[in-house]
Automatic annotation (TrEMBL):
Keyword ATP-binding: no
Localization of this protein: Cell membrane
Pfam families: BPD_transp_1
Principal location: membrane
Keyword Transport attached: yes
All copies of domain ABC transmembrane type-1, residue ranges: 77-259
Name of the protein in its database record: Phosphate-import permease protein PhnE
Keywords, comma-separated and alphabetical: Cell membrane, Membrane, Transmembrane, Transmembrane helix, Transport
Amino acid sequence: MTAQYPTTWRRPHQIVPDRRLRIALQIGVLVYLVLAFSTVEVNWQRVTEGMERGQRFIMGFLQPDFTSRWRDISQGLIESLTMTLTSTVVGVLISVPIGIGAARNLVPRPVYLVCRAIVAVSRSLQEVIVAIFLVAMFGFGPFAGFLTLTFATIGFIAKLLADDIEEIDETQAEAIRATGGTWFQLLDYAIKPQIMPRLIGLSLYRLDINFRESAVIGIVGAGGIGATLNTSIDRYEYDSAGAILLIIIAIVMVAEYSSSYLRKFLQ
């Protein structure tokens, strides 16, 4: 028996079936956008001056200077790479038990609620805010940056790991339970084979994110290449700032291609 396919196209159902109500909503959205844009106060003189500074920055980006501040650039780069690697490793190691505890189908409800609360707190605070707080606590330097990136990694990895565990193929888990396997055997034989490729991919992706974030949190004093970039911009050394940005772009591109190849190899 051959499958029957529709021969005519049917228009999908409208979310708002009433045509007059749809038009009213569209007009309302348009009016809101016009009113929202009208509240934006634009200082055109400041915009003109900013365009001139932007032009100087672009010229420095096109003519980067890698030599004048190479010592500071190399030191900041080493700090960023060190923060990135250590925070990713430590963050993933902490995220795994929290992610398992945040999976509804594996743990009792009290454990689930506590781990989900940890994930929610970690994801609710942006890295720059955490970096400002930790810099105030521990002072300027890469240690505050390491703690910031570790904190952010925990929320990122644990959240996605818990969601993946909740979406596993339950037939494998039921098979382990039917044989009388322990909870740890359930993790080892039913959960780990299904989530390990995903965990490796997420870890590599977070490594990429942490390096880019290290350039951002360095602006508020958390060490790394961002501090060097901020100093160059404050001194109007746009050629050195352009060199730093080119280095960041190059490292991110290398990490992107390397992680894509590694994920393909592991799969």
